[in-house]
Specification:
The protein contains 12 helices and 8 strands. The chain is an alpha/beta fold. α8 links the parallel β7 and β8. It starts with a strand and ends with a helix.
């Protein structure tokens, strides 16, 4: 259901800070043409925390409209208040999305039982498959494998995006959750290794600007052509690392503007433009990876 090279899509803004729907359509077309396997609309890389509920829902609907059935759309529905995630899930029922991606509640630092109840409440109001998202480096809470296993028993919780970078968890999750549960990497640097160990794909930041290479790499991996896939991955490693030189999506939006994929690289406060000291590093990464 969810596999291959999926994009953690940025949300373009114009210089006034409003959503740039012209650039958004351009991005969707770019990823369709590049062969990406799916788009995550308004996930955390899409600056979901700074969009209003109305903007969030509208952007998802517009991406579904722009995609026109050519590429699957997953909606970001995460929040640190369960009622807000529930609201997103309800509002996006019957919207044309194929799934929801919900990050663990940030700042609150809930217990494992709290995390279980949070995701259970979301799943109960949604009519689409649910993807758990664990990224403790950004949320200060870790969704432990045992809790993932409990959640995997809920019918429409079908997948996990794991951004811990801990490759040992692939085997643990597989043993605890069974063969049918979908495992996706959220860590670009280790994403290919994750898949080789038994994962199904990656939800990637790098994919925003190196979409064709990423799609090719994971198609090669699916065909068992690991040596060829690793050559591409090694070439893209400067991007995997340096797109996180400052808090994402700062660097990737700067890179997308430099490549002409979006009109403006504006972010919403409290995020600010890529620093002058970091710009040459990201620029060199674009060159070294063969993207620019």
């Amino acid at each position: 259901m969810f596999s291959g090279s999926i994009v953690a899509l940025i949300t373009p803004f114009n210089s006034s800070g409003e959503v740039d729907y012209v650039s958004l359509k351009k991005l969707v077309d770019f990823h369709v043409e590049a062969g990406s396997d799916g788009l995550v609309a308004v996930g955390t890389t899409g600056e979901s925390a700074t969009l209003t509920v109305e903007e969030h829902v509208k952007v998802v609907h517009k991406i579904v409209e722009f995609a026109a059935g050519r590429i699957p759309i997953i909606a970001g529905t995460g929040a640190n208040a369960t009622h807000e995630s529930v609201t997103f899930s309800r509002l996006l029922n019957n919207s044309g999305i194929v799934g929801c991606l919900s990050v663990t509640p940030y700042y609150n630092k809930p217990t494992q039982e709290g995390l279980y109840q949070h995701y259970k409440a979301i799943a109960e109001v949604s009519d689409v498959p649910q993807i758990l998202y664990n990224v403790p480096g950004r949320t200060a809470v870790d969704l432990l494998p045992e809790t993932v296993a409990r959640l995997s028993k809920i019918e429409n919780i079908v997948a996990l995006k794991d951004a811990t970078g801990d490759l040992e968890r692939v085997k643990i999750h597989r043993e605890l959750c069974g063969e049918d549960f979908i495992l996706l990497s959220g860590d670009d640097s280790t994403g290919l290794d994750f898949v080789q160990l038994g994962g199904h794909g990656v939800i990637s930041v790098t994919n925003n600007i190196a979409a064709a290479d990423m799609a090719k790499m994971f198609k090669l991996a699916a065909d068992g052509q690991w040596d060829e896939a690793k050559i591409i991955n090694e070439r893209l490693m400067p991007l995997h690392k340096n797109l996180f030189i400052e808090s994402s999506p700062i660097a990737v939006k700067w890179a997308a503007k430099k490549l002409g994929l979006i009109e403006d690289g504006t972010l919403r406060l409290p995020l600010t433009e890529l620093s002058e000291s970091a710009q040459p590093i990201v620029s060199q990464a674009l060159t070294d990876s063969g993207v620019y």
